[in-house]
Amino acid sequence: MKIVFNTNSPTAAASLFYQQAFQDIGQIDFYNSNFAAYDVALFMTYDYAVVEEVKKRHPHLKIGIIDPRAPAILSATPHCDFLIVDGVEMEDYWRIAQKPIFRYVEYPRFSLDKQATKAIQDFKLRLTQKNPDKIYIGYHGNSHHLMEGAKTLCPALTGLGKKYNIELLLMHNNPPPQFENQYKQSLPTGFKSTCVPWSMENYKRFLGVADIGIVPNNLGLSPKEPSTTGDPNTDYCLSFKMTSNPGRFIVFGLLGIPVVADFYPSSLQYLQNGCGFVAHSQAGWYHCLEKLIISSTLRKEMGNKLQSLVQKEFDFKVQNEKLICFLETIV
Predict the structure, then answer these.
(1) pLDDT at position 168, please?
(2) Which single residue of 55, 166, 217, 245 could bond 262 by disulfide (Cβ 3.0 to 4.6 Å)?
(3) Is 2 helix (H, G, I), strand (E, B) or coil?
(4) How many whole angstroms separate alpha carbon 191 and alpha carbon 279?
C-alpha cells in the first residue's frame, strides 16, 4: 500500500503537525501529484475543493480528508472514502457524512531528549532557587479561550494570586485588534503574566518550566432559561467547538506537567483516574488549581500519570500503526 499526503497549505499549523506525525510511516510520500502511483491520497481540510476532480481522474484512489473543520467540506465527502478527525467532538459531527472515520490526534512534535530535559530541569532549578515559593501556571492555544474564561478561570486565578506567589506563562499570538481591550480585561490581576508568541522552541524553553498547565476550552455561555426540569442557576451549559480535541493537554503531558481543563468531551474522556483535573465553575477551577499549588507531590504524580497516558495512547508510533491497520480495511 502506497500513500501520498498533499496540501496547498503546508505551513498551516495543522498541516505541519500532521506531516511531522506521519513522517515515520515507511510507505508514505509527501507532495506528489502523480496519483496513479498511489493507493491512498490524504488531503488536508483546506484542500477539500480538489477532492472531486482527483477522484474523477483516479477512481482507483482511496481518498481521505484530514481534520475537516468546516461544514462546507460536506460538499466534498461524497467524493472521498474516509475522514481523519482529531477528537470525539469532530467524530460525532462528521457522522453526518456517513463515511468511515479514523481518529488521529495531532500535536506539535518536539524533541525531549536527555539534553533538552536536563536543560528544562536546570532552568526550573534556577527559578526555584530565585523564587522558592513561586508557582508557574502555563497556557498555550489562542487568546479567545482566555477571554471566554473571564467569569470562571480568570477570577479563580485572581483569587489564588491573593494567597499564593503565582506567575502566568502564556504562549499565543496576539488577539485580533478588535478584541485587545476584552483580552486585557479578561486576564487575572494581582500577579505577573508573561506572554510569548507561539513557536516550536517556546514549548520547551518557555512552557516547559510550568508547574501546572491550564486548558480553558468552553465558549463561556450559560443557560438563559430553565429547562423543563431544571433551574438556570444550577443547570450547566457546556458550549465547545467541533474542533475541540485532546491536543492542548497532550502537550503538557509530553512535558510531564499536570493539568486542569474545562469540562469538554475530550478532557472528560481522558483526564480521569489521577491523570488530570477537570473544572467548569469559578469555584471548581479554584479548588483544582489550589490542590496542585499546595502539593508538589501531587503535581509530580499527576504529571507522570498524564505523561504515561500520552505515551500509551497518543505516541505517533502507536497512532501510525493503528492508522495503517485502518487504511488496510479501506483499500
Answers:
(1) 96
(2) 217
(3) coil
(4) 22
The order of strands in the sheet holding 28-30 is: 28-30, 3-6, 40-44, 62-66, 82-85, 101-103
Domains 3-107+314-330 and 114-313 share a fold: yes
Distance (Å, whole) CA 61 – CA 80: 9
Considering the domain 114-313, what is its CATH architecture? 3-Layer(aba) Sandwich (3.40)
Cα separation, 238 vs 283, in Å, equals 16
> Which ranges of the chain have pLDDT less than 50?
none
User: What is the fold of 3-107+314-330?
Assistant: Rossmann fold (3.40.50)
For the chain, the structural domain boundaries read: 3-107+314-330, 114-313
pLDDT for residue 260: 98
Residues in the chain: 331
Q: How far apart are CA 300 and CA 102, in angstroms?
A: 33
Instruction: Tell the residue number behind the cell numbers 443547570, with chain if given.
Output: 235
Phi, psi of 3 (to 5 degrees): -125, 145
pLDDT (0 to 100) of residue 271? 97
Q: How many CB atoms lie within 10 A of CB 306?
A: 26
Contacts of 76 (CB under 8 A, 6+ apart): 48, 49, 51, 52, 65
Model's pTM, two decimal places? 0.92
Count of CA atoms in the C-beta half-sphere (13 A) of 172: 20
